[in-house]
Write the structure tokens for this entry.
Amino acid sequence: MQAQSQIYQLFAGKLFALSLKYSKNQQDAEDVLQDSFLIIFNKIHQYTHKGSFEGWLKRIVINTALQKYREKSTLYLIKEEANLYEEEVVLDEDNISIDFLLELIQELPDRYRLIFNLYILDNFSHKEIAKMLDISEGTSKSNLSRARQLLKKKLEKNQQQLEKLSNGG
């Protein structure tokens, strides 16, 4: 029990932040975190000391979040191929706060949010994402592109609102 408490105290903050990236709100993130720790404590004997312990924990949190969406049947991935000639949308992440960006990411439809997080924030390849979500690599690329487009639109809208406020409008 003491060892479990120490593991929880050491990693709960980081793992909660990770679960928040994959959840629509704080309540869902808390559920993911709680379920993840139950899995961690039940399967800790399966950790093989290959790779970092923290990496193993993060993988459990990500898999738990993905499983929750599969169970709820809210994960609906649009199966479409990316247009190879489509212009890449670049987000200027240096000029926005991480909290605001996280808020915008949480507003994305589930299919886009999951792929955006897996690819951009957690550095999974499209091939790995395709395998995890049982979709094609093209679908992963297309959904990522659409997520970036939606985020860009949200950022532009926010910028326009800020400009109106600063101009007294």
User: Anything to note?
Assistant: The chain has two domains: 2-72, 93-166. Residues 107 and 147 are 10 Å apart (CA to CA). Residues 2-72 form a domain with the Rna Polymerase Sigma Factor; Chain: A fold (CATH 1.10.1740.10).
